[in-house]
Amino acid sequence: MPQPKLFLIPGWAVNSSIWYAIADRLEEVYELCYYDFPGYGTRQSLGGNLTLNELVADAIAQSPPGAVWMGWSLGTIVALEAARQSPERISKLVLTNPSPKFMTGDDWPHGQTAAAMDNLQKRFESDYETALKRFLLLQAGTDAAARKLAKETLKKLAQHPRPDWQALQSGLEILRQTDLRPGAHQITLPTRIIVGQEDRVIPPAAGIDLHQRITGSKLIELATGHAPFIEQPAQFIEAAIA
Q1: Under a CB-based contact definition with an 8 Å cutoff, are residues 149 and 18 in contact?
Q2: How many independent structural domains does the chain possess?
Q3: pTM for the model
Q4: What is the pLDDT of residues 34-76, one digit of tens each?
Q5: Which domain holds residue 78?
Q6: Which residue in 51, 98, 155, 224 is deepest, having the highest Cβ count within 10 Å?
Q7: What is the rounded distance in angstroms from the CA atom of residue 229 to the CA atom of residue 231?
Q8: Residue 204 neighbours by CB distance under 10 Å
Q9: How far is 98 from 226, CA to CA, in rounded Å?
Q10: CA 142 to CA 50: how far, in whole Å?
């Protein structure tokens, strides 16, 4: 009997190698299908500033029909909108550190400020490799196993060219502008939401809010930051595929 397909969508600033840390465990259950945003990994940029709808269309075109979609961070925004637009293409959602709205607002305290986003952009524009290394090692904290896995993941990521800067800017603009709260209730697919209780990038309250908007969704809280598959891989696998 063939294994179900798992369509893996990374987050902002990283290619699909981010998932290699847990690939061997996922392969026990799924046939893995990796996705890179245009301009990431080995994929050429499509030119121009891509919109969320364009990224969604690209992801749907790249995905096998009926796959489980697992997204992380920015990848969850793409997965959510794809599930709203084309639910027939997807069998299930696994949303890792998700948020329907990345930026804070008058009615939404669960995100990043404009100043924080500007600072993030400057750090990655100035020195991409150092900024990415600092970010992943910060998530790993002082745990020796997590730091070892983070360093191994950085080596895998570095085997591909750094993302096209215009593609990075497009992703940041999507994070700045997107608000999926109004349409979240339209998601009818089985949905698993994994949040990090210590996540400083996307506060766990954002995922909890999303869980409340998606009828029948399952919420799992892990004692991690923004990269649970590196920080606590065994616990993450259990949460993702149980």
Answers
A1: no
A2: 1
A3: 0.96
A4: 999 999 998 998 887 899 999 999 999 999 999 999 999 999 9
A5: 5-241
A6: 98
A7: 6
A8: 21
A9: 10
A10: 37
